[in-house]
Structures are given as C-alpha cells and as structure tokens.
Write a structure and sequence with these properties.
This protein is an alpha/beta fold. The protein has nine helices and eight strands. Helix content is 44%, strand content 18%. It has an eight-stranded parallel β-barrel, surrounded by eight helices. α4 (102-119) links the parallel β4 and β5 (122-130). α6 runs parallel beside α7 (185-194) and α8 packs parallel to α9 (233-246). The radius of gyration is 16 Å and the shape is globular. It starts with a helix and ends with a helix. Residues 21, 51, 174, 177-178, 202-205, 223-227 line the site of SN-glycerol-1-phosphate.
Length: 248
C-alpha cells in the first residue's frame, strides 16, 4: 500500500488524520527518534519533515533516526529542492499555487526531479495554497508571494480546483506556522465543496476545538507543528489526535 493510500485516501474516506510537522532546525538526530516515538504513541498518523532552512546532512540524519525508532510514515515537506533526502517514505511534490513566483511554482520542483527518481521516493503531487493570517508568515517572507485573501473563499476554491485539474493528489490550505488566525472555516468548507481530492490544513491550530471544527468543515488531514513544544505536550497531543480522529 502506498503512503498516499494509507494516509491520504484513508483520511478522506474514513476518519480524518493528524499529521505532525517536524522542523529539522529544532531537532537533533537524538531528539528526532524520541519525538517520533512520542508522536507514534499518541496515535499521530504521519510526520511531515522539513519546511525550514535545515541542511541536507542534518535532515538526512533526522529522517534516518526517525525511521530507526518508529514505524510512523515520514513524508518530506521540502522548503526547496535541497531538502530531498533518502529514507523518507514519500515526498509532497508541491507547487505554491497561491503565489506567482516562478521559483516556487516550477523551478524548485524541477530541480528536485532527478534526486527523487534516484532515491525512488513516492511522490504526492500537491497544490500548496498560502492563506492570509493576522501577520505575514515565514512562507510569505521566504517565497516573496502574497497569500490568498481570507475574505475570498471562492478564490481559494478555484485554486484548489485548478490543482485537481492539474492532476495533483491533494490540496494544502496553509495558514502559516505559529500564526494567530488559522484558515477560516468558511474557506475550508468552500474548498471542500469544490474538490474531490484530500484536503489538508494547518497553521495556528492549538486546541481540540479548533481541529474538530476544521474536520467538521471538511478537512481530511490536520497538521500541527508548534504545539509539540507547548507545556504538557503529551496530554495536549493526545487530546488533539483524539479530537481529529473522532470529529466526523
Ligand atoms: C505549518 O501548518 C503547519 O506548515 C504547522 O503550523 O506550527 O502553527 O502548528 P503550526
């Protein structure tokens, strides 16, 4: 079974999935294995790894250490073509469709194709849509692109449908890591109505209520990142995972 079938399609057709985003810059190869087994124990369905400025060497060690210590699927979530490493189970092969910067629309994905082929990593084509929040997100700064306005759910739905028509296998509505305002519920609903591929959302989700509402509105996969460092993490993580799994 592919990672796409196991994680994405089961989240769409059965109970929703909870994915934890691990930032390699905040980990060492020692702490990565431990973090992965904590996530696995809490019932997290998969890990996204990447999205930062981490060096390929560190990323490689981290992914290796996670695979040594747990059986949880590891999916690369690369900030650029230099974040493609061996041992990962799959990679989000994505294009920043909300932006108009050729580098993140086509150039970075293009740079990655040979390594992905040589490492034989499963690709999950994904349309990545950055949504406006209360403050500029790191993705906005790094990609030098404008997010889609919060007040235009129809525009987000059209971008999502474009991703589907391109043959992409999922759409990610990204609020931005650590933001105060997650993707609006109405937007999740409109996007869900427009597409039939799995819908992922994350950014600024910190409570069981916030994740439950988003699954009820149609999100298939919920991503949390920063919450891993919060106080009483394991209890909160358990609550979040259980909220995602039981929301439908
Ligand atoms: C970023 O959506 C993720 O891609 C995670 O965001 O760190 O705010 O949970 P947080």
């Amino acid at each position: 079974m592919t990672v796409y079938e196991k994680v994405f399609l089961s989240a769409k057709n059965g109970r929703a999935a909870h994915v934890v985003l691990l930032d390699p810059d905040k980990l060492t190869k020692e702490s990565a294995g431990d973090t992965a087994s904590r996530c696995s124990k809490a019932g997290v369905d998969a890990l996204f790894v990447g999205g930062s400025t981490a060096s390929p060497e560190l990323l490689n060690e981290i992914v290796y250490s996670i695979k040594e210590n747990s059986s949880i699927p590891v999916i690369l979530f690369p900030g650029g073509a230099d974040q493609i490493v061996k041992h990962a189970d799959a990679i989000l092969f994505m294009s920043l469709l909300s932006g108009r910067n050729p580098r993140f629309l086509v150039e970075e994905p293009l740079k990655g194709v040979h390594l992905i082929r040589d490492y034989n990593i499963e690709t999950i084509g994904m349309g990545y849509l950055l949504i406006e929040s209360d403050k500029p997100s790191a993705v906005e700064r790094v990609s030098q692109t404008n997010p889609l306005p919060r007040s235009k759910p129809e525009l987000a739905a059209d971008h999502a449908l474009m991703a589907q028509y391109f043959g992409m296998k999922a759409v990610y509505l990204e609020g931005g890591s650590g933001v105060g305002l997650p993707v609006p519920l109405e937007m999740i609903q409109k996007v869900k109505e427009a597409i039939s591929i799995p819908l992922i959302t994350g950014g600024g989700l910190r409570t069981p209520e916030a994740v439950t509402e988003r699954v009820k509105c149609g999100a298939d996969i919920i991503v949390t990142g920063n919450v891993l460092e919060a106080k009483g993490t394991d209890t909160l993580l358990n609550e979040l995972v259980s909220a995602v799994h039981t929301a439908r």
